[in-house]
Amino acid sequence: MARKTNNGNVKSARKAKANSVASQSRPSLRKSPREARPGKPRGLSNRRAAEEAEIRALEARIRAECSGRVAATTSTANAGQGPALTGRLFRELPISERTLRGLEASKYVKMTEIQSGAIPLALSGRDILGEARTGSGKTLAFLVPAVEYLYRQNWSKMDGLGSVIVSPTRELAYQIFQVLTNVGQEHEISAGCIVGGRSLAEEQHAVANMSILVATPGRLLQHLDESPGFDASALLILVIDEADRILDFGFQETMHNILQHLPVQRQTLLFSATLHNSVHRLGRAALRSPEVISVHHNAKSRTPETLKQIYMVVPLEKKVDTLFSFLRSHSQKKTIVFVSTCKQVRFLYEAFRKLKPGPAVMELHGRQSLTKRMLIFQQFMERERAVALLCTDIAARGVDFPAVDWVVQADCPDTVDSYIHRVGRTARYESTGKSALFLLPSEKPFVDKLLQARVGVRAINAKQSKVVSIQQKLASVLAESGDIRHLAQRAFASYVRSVRLMKDKDIFDFQALPKAAFAESLGLADAPEIGAEGEGEDTEHNKLKKRKNQSALQRLKDKIREKKQAGKQAPKQDEDTEEELELDQPPSSKKKVGKWERRQRRIAAASKAGLEPAKEAATEEDFLELVEGQREGLESQAVLPIKKRLKIRKDGSAQASRQHVFFTGKNGAKASSELAQLADELRAEVSEKGESRASFLRRVQDDLATRDSSDAALSRSRIQKRHQTMRRKERAAKGVQDNEELDCESESPPPSPAPQQTEGSLEDSVPKRKAASSVSKIASLDLEDLEKKALSRLGGLFA
Ligand SMILES: Nc1ncnc2c1ncn2[C@@H]1O[C@H](COP(=O)(O)OP(=O)(O)OP(=O)(O)O)[C@@H](O)[C@H]1O
Questions:
Q1: CATH hierarchy code of domain 10-294
Q2: ipTM (interface predicted TM)
Q3: Dist. CA 429 → ligand 1 center (Å)
């Protein structure tokens, strides 16, 4: 049985037994299994003798059943017509009992199309270029031949590296390795997984003894270059999974260097759900007259038929609200959310952790440590529902999370191929799934590209009533936490930069991005600058530049905010601390609670986040509505109006520039409400006269807004004048002249000093009762004044 070592490698507990025998001779390079075997002495035990007999029988069967050449492109008979499984059993293949037991223990009995197409050819020693839809079982299509080849060669650790599987990401490498340990559990073959992010020295000790390695390209090359005793010169079989991604990731050079270390005479298998031209180019360099197995070549759709795909047109400034609302409406689902950059993941994760959309949120991106990535990966695998994984494209390829209900692409992918891989994280194998793509209005041409590539998507709108605005909440979160504000700035900058760097300028229009509104939607006061370097980040240089361009008022506000935040600054967490790994609702620490209690908790959480609890129960059907009058798959105008709200920051300043800002003086508050009442009355009157309600409303509101502050100042000066007049009259009644009074004052004991009159502290200069009556009088005076002016204007308009 295989056992795991500390560094995650798997070794056979009994592999040493055969080593001494195997090391006596190495198989010659690029021999067919049949040719390679005779030079290799085998053990003498009965079991070994039985295995020898089995191997001989297998080789005979492979020659008879698998060696016939096939056409350059093979499409299976029922390509794309039905379930992934064919009627063919693994047991029918010429493979060892050990592998069969491993497959059956993992519940693999029947083969999928790509397996039944590729495995027999691979067993016969052919090079293969294999293309099949996401989730169609490509992993077994290359693992079974890889294990079998080594078994038939009686390969041991003394022979060096016999088989290597190259994967573009650590997560995928880890997953392939897990499948390998299941399928190969009965074999006495040592296997390991080597990926970046671990100690090279620790791995160096182990790799020299490995017969099969699953590796990321960079780390593999590092070992080939630097690890003493690591010998790949006798390699039998090279597998490149997600070959196109390996090239996209810029691993071309690395792959070519790796190939320099490998024998020319070897078998090579190359697999992906999307094989494009660059893969064929690599294929020419790495493969010898390959068989092209393209299972879904003639299928109606390039994506699984059990996948329902929709898209929504979401303006950039509504994206975060829409994503939050989507998760809230699908709180019991298992969802993967893709965004363009690590920094967006970081920000959304921290923000959503605070605002709690409903499902537990998790984050996965390339800036996490390996340990953390693996932990999150494992945790998301194990969660069955009520969880949302926010991630970058590192989780887009190959990873096989079970039972994912929804894939949401919050940012448009760079290519159709990326789209196909992302949505492929759901509807895997025989299960169903759904995907939603958010497109900016300027990105709508991407739909045509999808349709041209045989990817059917339907236009859907989000129901307006189900989209909640979290902008105000985000602004508060940012005001409270300097760290999250910093993340928001970085998320903004990295997204904008990513759009600018996109190659497809027909889809990605950097100029069309509503940057200020986008920044506001993230809770930021204004858009961070996007410069050539250190873009949008809080570098000293950027801060200085920003300050220079700001108004004096803005600078003062920022200063106050910074001071406040300095007081509240939470202790900074180390990026890789274990606390950060904890989920919002870790399943292990959860006590079993009743339905009622769960609901109460949900309500409490929702009200804490300032959200109405009733909405939390909304279902996906409540959230989505089909765009009417649209042909399936065609573009639509899916606009998502979201209620405009007055955004008041913690420091009291209003956020949106076109908002009506109320006068905040003690008298002003009253005046404002009365003015609003007047405006209402006038509106009713005007609608009778037939003026457009909207234009009138705008006019009166503008008028009121500009007048609020000047009226308040006017009121104060009138009160002052009236008081002075009253005092003068009182004195005149007493027969005292102003100058006499002054003289008197200098001679008599000094009266208590008159309070200084400052703006907004009018009542302090007069007795309280008097002040109150004055305020109401002044307010009504102003109203009369305004009313007269408004009516005279209306009279002019409607005369
Ligand atoms: N023959 C089979 N019988 C039952 N389940 C299978 C079989 N083959 C594969 N599966 C299951 O189907 C799922 C998808 O398989 P796999 O990850 O190999 O797909 P893939 O084609 O490599 O997908 P991707 O293109 O996304 O990498 C896995 O959960 C796997 O266990």
A1: 3.40.50.300
A2: 0.99
A3: 6
